[in-house]
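quick one, two chains, predict together pls
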Amino acid sequence: MNLTPEQMTLGRRNFLKTIAGVPAVAAVGAAAVMKGPVRGGPVRVGFVGVGGQGRALLRNVDPNFAQVRAMADINPASLAAADEILKKNSQPPAKHYVEFRDMLQHEDLEAIITAVPLWMHAEVVTTCLDAGKHVLCEKMMAWDKAGYERMMQTAAKARRVLEIGYQRNYNPIYRSAHEGVMKTGVLGDVYHVRLAWHRNGNWRRKGDPPSKDFDASKWGYPTWDHLWNWRLYWRYSQGLFAELGSHQVNATNWFLGTAPERVQACGGVYRFKDGREVPDHVYAMFEYPGGVTGTFTSIESNAFDERYEAFFGTKGTLIIRNENDAMLFDEGAGARPTGVEVAPKGAGAALETSETKPAQAGGAAREVSASTEGARGPSPTMIEIQSFCSAVRTGSPLACGPEKASHSAAWTLAANEAMKTSAPVKIG
Amino acid sequence: MPDVLTRRNFLSFDFGDRRAPGDHWIRIHRIAMACRFEVMLSSEDAGHVGAARAALDEADAVESLLTVFRETSAVADLNRRAADDDVDVDAGLFTLLVRSHELHEETDGAFDVTSTPLSRCWGFLMRQGQLPADDAVQQARDRVGMPHVHLDPEHQTVRFARRGMEINFGAIGKGYALDRMASMLRAGGVRRALLSAGRSSVVALGGRGHGWQVDLRPRLASRLVGRLWIRDGGVGTSGTGEQFFEIDGKRYGHVIDPRTGHPAAGVLGATVVTSDGASADALSTAFFIGGPSLAERYCAGHADTMAVLVLDDTTERTQVFGSYHGATLEMES
């Protein structure tokens, strides 16, 4: 990204420096736009899958909105770790199950939050929907098209809420960028979107089975590694396009108000030749209606670019870095960098006034960090779960229901197909 | 007091109204006039981010007109030529000069856009404060004085009666720029925004309830002085907490009293609330120089002007003069 150090400095201050380094923006009132579950109390929730991502969701459960009654996981170590989270957050212990079907049968639950390996999404979600439960399913939607179509149909038939967990939808930075920049035409006409998620490290996780006699094959994984590192095997995973790319493409679809129609891609296992199947470097180019072209790259050999979504318009450029830092630049030689920050209102003054502080950027508004004191709100993930619970209780609209999520899933599957066949793939 | 949405009352809140006040502030900002210009919107007004950017372009335009740091500006041109010629200036600049003239008269000479030679002789232009010799002060004073700036309204020209004079809108320009930005925003349909430049100049456009909350915290005062809620009006603050030097334990601030040629003393911070940003800016400087007696006299004679002065005494006493119809002030005890 061709930014001068000055621009980067400005950008780092800009647009939501509030949440730099912390998982939250707030949102005393970001939540205020939805209807809280006032009547009926917290939603009775069960978790299916409390591995790394499941526990990230569990950590973000607001007891005012959801009460975690039970948790199912095939790995007892994950359940023990989940217990610790509930304890740390002063929430009552939840009953353990190995089989999520047993949990559905024995517990009086209204909703399920699930974060299981991708290949199981369709089975878990449709089973829960059929059992009359509302479902918040971690992204991406499903391992294959048949799976996500079945999820959509089942949710419609069961008339239950199905939300797919793309937390950018609940991140006030993205919401502000959508409302204030994309919808207002500040960027002019956007013809190019660049998405990057670059890391320098090994996606393979190290970890031991919970016990010597733990038998992963009972669950469809020939070895412990196939379960523990399911993301590295095609049978369970759709690779980097799914785990990282679909986040950014889902947000781009939202911002552009449309979905890509065609994709070309390449990639491979270039650095970590350790028996994994899914590539450690992937590159995709994809076309939206109206001449908008996107690129997505994810590499595991260099983290200089970190992760960002950049929208290039005829009048300006919007860059959102690392989900917590947005920058806006005017297009043209005389362009002046303009920053946009979003800060929770909280209590207290909008501004502090004193004599002029000369010649310094950032001297005007009081420090945003100061204004968030005591007002730090929930993380996007927490808002996501709150919104899901509100949808269950009051029917408030979802940010990423099955149809929207299916578009980014379709892109993912098409990108993988394009990469594997070295040919452009039509989406849908 | 404005409603404060806490977590507790959030849970018992009626969420039926989707037009309820937005949840966060959006601050659109840019560096202009060597400080941060900012337009603050409530998130439900996010659709006006584009208008806010256009308003910031206006700040750039005002800077290009007024700056003395670029040879190409209208004011730089005026300063170069007005001792020799009647200089044509554009309507905006002429209006600002007329207003500066009025403010000079209304503040008994405390506000003066020609005091640059004094600031220079005290070293403040280079940010290298120094005690000048008496004759240097006297020489500078000879080149200072708004009465020596002749404004011809018919031809819209300006002439300096003395050589070596300079106009510098440092004490009014930011407020003026904010006023122009506010006019643009208003014309563009924006009904609520809080505009600021540096920490010192604020213009409120509309406002919910009592208005926008702005805390008064002059840098030399050791505490929060008061809380202000403002709707449709300008707030200007003057002080020397940022620009000063000390010799032998005595503090010399950058605000020079043009009537004596010496740094103003006796006030730690002066804040003025009135209908527009330019007047609020200028009056805060004037009252910082002229102290409580000028503030009292001025506010008695001018409706809709409120002044808050923190005095440089051992108790940092705060005095409030006048009132402004769009402002609610809550003093810190």
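Residues 28-168 of chain A form a domain with the Rossmann fold fold (CATH 3.40.50.720).
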